[in-house]
Design brief:
227 residues; mainly alpha; 7 helices; globular
Length: 227
Amino acid sequence: MSRAGYAPPMMPQPGPQPGPQPSSGQVAFTVIWKLAVSAIAFTGLFLAHDAFGSWHLEELSQLGSLIAGVYFLLAAIIPLARRRHLDEPDPFVRMSVLLLVLVTLGVYNLVMAGQLDKSWSKFEHIFTPLALLVDWFAVGRNQETVKWWHVIAAPAAPLAYLVFAVMKGNADGSPIYSILDTSDSGFFPFVIGALIGIWVVALLLMGIGRLHRSMRLAPPPVAGGSR
């Protein structure tokens, strides 16, 4: 029988090989760091409660602190439950939490000219966003895998809050924040500017992830020179 035109059957390609197991020191550092970030977020939340005498989770500052605190608390458990993973399971969720607190930082300080003389305000509008930024810059690896659709969908969490805040403001008869008054002529320019800003920051975060990967995989410098 002629074998002309015969093509051997396709052999299955091996899947990606798992990376090396993290050391006990890496696991311990990751857990301690994530717990520290969670503690910073919760500190701002509870200081605000003490200052106002009640919860105001409809406000983005407190809601963002709550989400960040819970998220990083859960992220600290992952290395303990599954030693193979030092990262959160999804870079989009991680980026969304970061963007939510960065919106708090940007709007409160740049648009609302908020006051930072109180401890709760420092934690909610400075310390928590900066802690999450440091986490993105220096801890973990899944920021290296941010995709283009993550950037396009980056405003999802802030837009979800915007819809909630507008609906609550309309139901209560007064907006949660003056900048969210839909009858004000500055409402739509603010929303458009915020969306553009979120996309720009998301692009920067993706670039930081790529840079993080390049630096991590760069070959070590050769000691000495040719003789």
